[in-house]
């Protein structure tokens, strides 16, 4: 079945699913920020496909052979790929070369996964070793776990649990990057000043499938692990794997059909260009330069330095006596002074305070007017005054007055 798009541009070629089946590996595809689809091809290329317009926005040659292992860093959108020489590379669509390249295993990498916070990276190789790497600053290994067999698929949950799939066995580890306790010298072996090696002996959960396991994925906001095998998809319960608290503005698991449609439109409106994807993401951060610039302006005003304002251009009035040079110059000076005062109030934050005071005074006046006696109430008895009468014709003709 072909994949079509509503927005079609004549100068751009529209990519369909039938066309992608010949060149790319559909099973290794992943979505970047839910609006861009990334494919890795057998020819060693990375393709970024924009799902909103259906065109390829970036094509990056890796020069590292066939790509079969890939994951995405959810925090910044950087793509991590594993290669047959044991190297892990990180890619962004705005660069034609890798931004980070690290040697992880002496053998080929079989699976790779990144946690939800973007702080830890898990890799597994043919040597049956599972390594946890620190992606925050040092890119150093934190722990090394020796597995009974090499894991073909791994995945992190929202709360940090790590699921491993090897042959027909699924194992779930809790805190694989944690520091070993002081009384665990028999299980842990220090192989470097910062790395501890241990043999997996007691997993948090274990599940034995009838058929070989191809992929494991945690369900968001639910304590469920999905297991894909040659016989189909099965689900197992995994307590403590999902995030119990969710942000309704970002992801709402109880959303109806209309809410999901509106969320798709909002995501398209809030979509950032792919060029903003970088190793050090600036999305959602505070720009210190803007804060410093604002403080410098405020400090200059407090020290008595009047900000510079452009002189306004005044149109000549064609009425008699209205376009004299003196009148035009006086009007310029008045507008120039108003602009200066507006700029000073805006820098010092006086405008916001004045606006709040004006709203408060207007609201108080409305409440005071609503409590004044109405003229129509003079024609009714005191017994009927217990209920407030609505506006009548007499109230409209004679507005209420203060006594």
UniProtKB/TrEMBL annotation:
InterPro entries per record: BING4_C_dom, WD40/YVTN_repeat-like_dom_sf, WD40_repeat_CS, WD40_repeat_dom_sf, WD40_rpt, WDR46/Utp7
WD repeat coordinates: 102-137
Name of this chain's protein: WD repeat-containing protein 46
Keyword terms: Nucleus, Repeat, WD repeat
Superkingdom of this protein's organism: Eukaryota
Gene Ontology terms describing biological process: maturation of SSU-rRNA from tricistronic rRNA transcript (SSU-rRNA, 5.8S rRNA, LSU-rRNA)
GO CC term, one of those recorded: 90S preribosome
SUPFAM superfamilies named among the record's database cross-references: WD40 repeat-like
Annotated ranges, domain BING4 C-terminal: 203-281
Compartments where found: Nucleus, Nucleolus
Organism whose genome encodes this protein: Schistosoma haematobium
